[in-house]
Specification:
The protein is built from 6 helices and 9 strands. The chain is an alpha+beta fold and 172 residues long. It has a single domain, classed as Cathepsin B, Chain A (Alpha-Beta Complex), CATH 3.90.70. The strands form 2 sheets. Strands 2, 4, 5, 6, 7, 8 and 9 form a 7-stranded antiparallel beta sheet that branches.
């Protein structure tokens, strides 16, 4: 438990702007996760609102942001990403994930929030996104202003590895 708390605190706030890219082929598995286009630095509240909506709890990103967004950090702490769902009656757990775990959870109907780093070199640009589907070539994520954005497995590994493969599972 103590190491999980340290992991959460060490990762700090996340939310970078996201550039738009095109998609790929059809998904093998795609979950019907609601989509909210992200305003600047609101990736955490958006990701939580999308997953809450998937589980039948309709809330807006603005409602979530009022409780978790930290304007001084221009983002949301990963610790708040874990604790906020619990305060709302959900179970949540953060852990070090992996590609096979993502595929397994999506196949079981469980969307996942991942923290990726879209920065370069020593410049961090942390960003939360919701993994909603996959195929043999990569995953689909609600990310920034992009619904079902495709990330090849190589691209996902590159940006996810920098956060230690931080993953959040939220369930009713």
């Amino acid at each position: 438990m103590f190491s999980a708390v340290l992991m959460i605190l060490a990762l700090g706030a996340g939310c970078a702007g996201v550039e738009t890219r095109g998609g790929k082929e059809e998904a093998d598995v795609m979950l019907a996760v609601p989509f909210f286009p992200q305003d600047a630095y609101q990736c955490g509240p958006v990701a939580l609102a999308e997953v809450f909506g998937f589980w039948g709890r309709d809330v807006t990103p603005e409602e979530v942001a009022a409780e978790v967004f930290n304007p001084r950090l221009s983002g949301t702490l990963s610790m708040d990403m874990v604790l906020h769902p619990r305060r709302k009656g959900f179970r949540s757990s953060a852990y070090w994930g992996g590609i096979e775990d993502l595929r397994d959870k999506i196949r079981k109907g469980l969307p996942l929030i991942v923290l990726v780093d879209l920065g370069f070199s020593v410049v961090e640009k942390n960003h939360f996104m919701v993994i909603v589907g996959y195929n043999d070539d990569g995953v689909y994520a609600h990310s920034g202003r992009d619904r079902n954005r495709f990330f090849s497995y190589d691209e996902l590994q590159r940006i996810w590895k920098k956060t230690g493969y931080w993953t959040l599972l939220v369930e009713p």
